Amino acid sequence: MTEVKGGSNPYQCSDKTSVLQEARVFNETPVNVKRSTHVLTKILYLLNQGETLGTKEATDVFFAMTKLFQSNDIILRRLVYLGIKELCSVAEDTIIVTSSLTKDMTGREDQYRASAIRALCRITDASMLQAVERYMKQAMVDRTSGVSSAALVSCRHIAQHSPDVVKRWVAEVQEAVHSDNVMVQYHGLGMLYQIRKSDKLAVTKMVSKLISSGMRSPYAICLLIRIVAKLIAEEESSAGERSHLMEFLESMLRHKSEMVVYEAANAVVALSAATTTTTTTTTSRDLVTAISVLQLFLFAAVRTLGKVAMTQPAAVTACNLDLENLLQDVNRSIATLAITTLLKTGSEGSIDRLMRSIAAFLNDISDEFKIVVVEALRSLALQYPRKQALLMGQLADMLRNEGGLAYKEAIASTIITIIEDNPDAKEKGLDHLCEFIEDCEHTTLAVRILHLLGKEGPRTSRPARYIRFIYNRVILEVSFIYNRVILENAAVRAAAVSVLARFGAQCPDLLPNILVLLQRCMLDTEDEVRDRSTYYHAVLSTRDPAIIARCILNPPMYSLSSLERALLSYLSSDTTKAFDASCVPAAPPPAASASLSSAASSITAAISGPEDVTSAVPALQQEKRSVSMHDNSAPVELTESETEYVVRCVKHTFLGHIILQFDCTNTLNDQLLEDVSVVVEEDGSNWQILQTLPCASLPYSCPGTCYVLLAIPEDIMSTTGTFTACLKFQVRDCDPITGEPETEDGYGDDYTLEDIEISVSDHVSAAQRSNFAAAWEELGPGSELEDTFALTSLSSLAEAVTQVTNFLGMQPCDRSEKVPDGKNSHTLYLAGTYRGGQSVLVRAKLALSDGVAMQLTVRSTDPAVSEVIASAVG
Amino acid sequence: MSGLFEPTLYMVKGMAILDSDGNRLLTKYYDPTIFPSVKEEKKFEKQLFNRANAEITMINRLTCVYRSNVDLYFYVIGSSQENELILQSVLNCLYESVSTILRKNVEKRTLLDNLDIIMLAFDEICDGGIPLETDPQVVAQRVSLRVEESPFNDQTVTQVLQSAREQLKWSLLK
């Protein structure tokens, strides 16, 4: 190497143009071996560094390179082969070297033959293969293993683009499988499988033959194991064959090569994971053997174990001790995987120890692994409530350390989950979070935590101590402005102001101080912050509990689309009267709307929104303006799912009307239904059926919709009822394939549906009250009704909570839907809005005593509504 | 997760030798679907190098096994489902062959001096993603084309002196 520049790398400073210039040396006669070797190495190095040649450049170099065939220097010749392989994809007319390569591959020099075959197969296309076919066949069974391997591997590459040619060489490939050489055997098997793989029977035959004859090469056995595993997973073979194959896998667990053992264990575990849901191909005994084998070399297997732990943690428990040793491993990814596996399988007693280990290495691992750890901690905390204090401490430590948003968010939401799950952990958790927001650079996270503080803080034993943290959010920003560094942004400050107001509203002894703080916030630079503080200051200054409760604790939450609609219709009508906000329905609670939309999307028939419904029923058009709408209730199935006609009913409640929307599907492919309508009849006579809107035509599997418009009775006490329903239609037989009707006229038919129930919950929509107690006080005892019930059919409090909630169609508040374990009594708070916009609150005191006893207290803005609700239960 | 592999000979996704600054000396990727261009390849190599303390690691859903000596870093890369022990045996072959070729002087300088032979060895170990040979002795023997030459026979006295001086200089600089 003559030129040593650019540090210790003689190739570093060579650039493309100069090297291509140097390539002229290839043309010298006789060949200058030394220079040519050096220049060719340089070219190869450049290509490897990612330099690309244009077609012209590549072709030039390629042709210059062919001149080097004149030299018989082995290294140079081999480098030329390499060059050919590198350039053949770019250069043109590479076919020109075919004859030289063919000569080399059939020559006597073993050093050339293998490499020449591999180079040749890169430049030949399917048509050229014919010419070399004979040589390839010979090479495959050559006694020199290198040549044989080279031929087989090249053959495998060729199979990618012209599989048909390769199929003719099956006899030679088969011979190679029985070669003594480890690699040849492996390449032979790979090739043979490639040829046979589309023919299941041939693969089965090949496998059973190879299993009985036994193979020497560990690589070939690994490949065989994969083929076997695939056969088992495909479940097309008979049970006898399967057990035979399983036996083979099991025997491979005792092979002397670790590689094979690991491969077999992997296959067994993967098979068991894949088949647990369908059939139990792998018995638990197989799994146990595999697990004990994996124990032997956990280092490579710990990741696989992690996967098993997700589905079958008990099976992995045996390795816990080894996993704990792995925690000390210098390789942090392995230690993390080990610890997360342990966290999944570990018992309550080992948590303390694990926590110490986590603390030790947490700083060395990347965020994505940290999140894995946090997720594991979360599930652990829910599993073992008694360890929550410890886990909380750990999480708080983690929160203080460095980390990205995703990581911090995972920790914060884990802490929040713990707080919500366990009231005892609340104060401690809030303390940690408070400390965290002191220097939290993530706006979304800070706002979220502030909001939580506002909800939970006032109800703790000493709310005053949180004020400092919250007010700091406002204050610190101001001082930072002076330093021209804005850390806390306006969103955080605005959130902090709202939270201060909530404290003021709920803690009367703090109120004077909070008013002072809010006054200071009015000096803020940001409009939103000033607006909020002014607003809240004014509201709090009134000292009127009702106003405070309405404006701060339970602000109205309108459904935005409905609000928009109501405002638009207000603008187009008489604007001299004040806008009546009570007719705008409240937004459904987020969780409920999520489940609703998923339910809606899961059914095939599209449920139209309220807009479409009103436009579909003309009778409602004229009174649309005065109408207030409840959100659609979830669809009710009126038929079994596997019947001829499938009908679902969705109820839309309006101020004075209910629209029943029937989504019908015809599942008979030889029938066309026409003039489809649902006839409903009430057993009493309170309800009046105003209009029925049929669906003109219902072809096979296309959903159609028809409607029924009902007037709600004046008497509020008789607004529930049961309706019998019947599907009436004209049938025309039609061709199952084309769907063309075969007859001119249809005949009338009907189909009885299940009864439709209109209950109290159809008149009530769930509403959110972020502070139930305040709302309760606000409504006052004026319209209160109280009654006691014995729910004898229920056996647990949780069951009673769900039943009552569903029956009334209201929203549980203050997380009262969660019944703590081991308690004998519980109080459920429910909030809702009645059809006309009257708000309704329910307090249900439940006690467990030979069934469930319930004391129900209802308050509402309208006494009649209270009565309806109270009488509904029972 | 699907734990079952498609049985195939294509087990190796890439092999790499990097220097102590994480620059590539010799790399080869066999699956064009993983890295569409050189830019992604180099980015991946940086990630690989930065996690160099791990004998085995996972980056971008690829399992990477690693071994180093002095100023050279050897990697073999396979899919995340690949049998790590097979990758390990390929890595072992790569390292041992290089070590044999360089007569145990596994360092950047000697490697670059013998880059042509190393390239040939690379090519002998893995062909387009299929492990071609895993016995380092066999690989070394297949490319040991210079052994029979005496190191001095085609050099003039001045060249020998020159190279001796060079060697001395390098050993002092180190």
Automatic annotation (TrEMBL), chain A:
One of its GO terms (biological process) is intra-Golgi vesicle-mediated transport. Belongs to the COPG family. It holds the Pfam family COP-gamma_platf. GO terms for molecular function: structural molecule activity. This is Coatomer subunit gamma. Residues 761-873 form the Coatomer subunit gamma C-terminal domain. Oligomeric complex that consists of at least the alpha, beta, beta', gamma, delta, epsilon and zeta subunits. One of its GO terms (cellular component) is endoplasmic reticulum. It comes from the Eukaryota. The keyword Repeat applies. InterPro entries: ARM-like, ARM-type_fold, Clathrin/coatomer_adapt-like_N, Clathrin_app_Ig-like_sf, Coatomer/calthrin_app_sub_C, Coatomer_g_Cpla, Coatomer_gsu, Coatomer_gsu_app_Ig-like_dom. Residues 628-759 form the Coatomer gamma subunit appendage Ig-like subdomain domain. It is found in: Cytoplasm; Golgi apparatus membrane; Cytoplasmic vesicle, COPI-coated vesicle membrane. Keywords: Cytoplasm, Cytoplasmic vesicle, ER-Golgi transport, Golgi apparatus, Membrane, Protein transport, Repeat, Transport. The coatomer is a cytosolic protein complex that binds to dilysine motifs and reversibly associates with Golgi non-clathrin-coated vesicles, which further mediate biosynthetic protein transport from the ER, via the Golgi up to the trans Golgi network. Coatomer complex is required for budding from Golgi membranes, and is essential for the retrograde Golgi-to-ER transport of dilysine-tagged proteins.
TrEMBL record, chain B:
GO terms for biological process: intra-Golgi vesicle-mediated transport; intracellular protein transport; retrograde vesicle-mediated transport, Golgi to endoplasmic reticulum. Gene3D superfamilies: 3.30.450.60. Residues 11-146 form the AP complex mu/sigma subunit domain. InterPro entries: AP_mu_sigma_su, Clathrin_sm-chain_CS, Coatomer_zeta, Longin-like_dom_sf. It comes from the Eukaryota. The keyword Protein transport applies. Keywords: Cytoplasm, Cytoplasmic vesicle, ER-Golgi transport, Golgi apparatus, Membrane, Protein transport, Transport. GO terms for cellular component: COPI vesicle coat; Golgi membrane. It holds the Pfam family Clat_adaptor_s. It is a peripheral membrane protein. It is found in: Cytoplasm; Golgi apparatus membrane; Cytoplasmic vesicle, COPI-coated vesicle membrane. Its main location: cytoplasm. Oligomeric complex that consists of at least the alpha, beta, beta', gamma, delta, epsilon and zeta subunits. The coatomer is a cytosolic protein complex that binds to dilysine motifs and reversibly associates with Golgi non-clathrin-coated vesicles, which further mediate biosynthetic protein transport from the ER, via the Golgi up to the trans Golgi network. Coatomer complex is required for budding from Golgi membranes, and is essential for the retrograde Golgi-to-ER transport of dilysine-tagged proteins. The zeta subunit may be involved in regulating the coat assembly and, hence, the rate of biosynthetic protein transport due to its association-dissociation properties with the coatomer complex. Belongs to the adaptor complexes small subunit family. This is Coatomer subunit zeta. It comes from Hyalella azteca. The gene is LOC108680467.
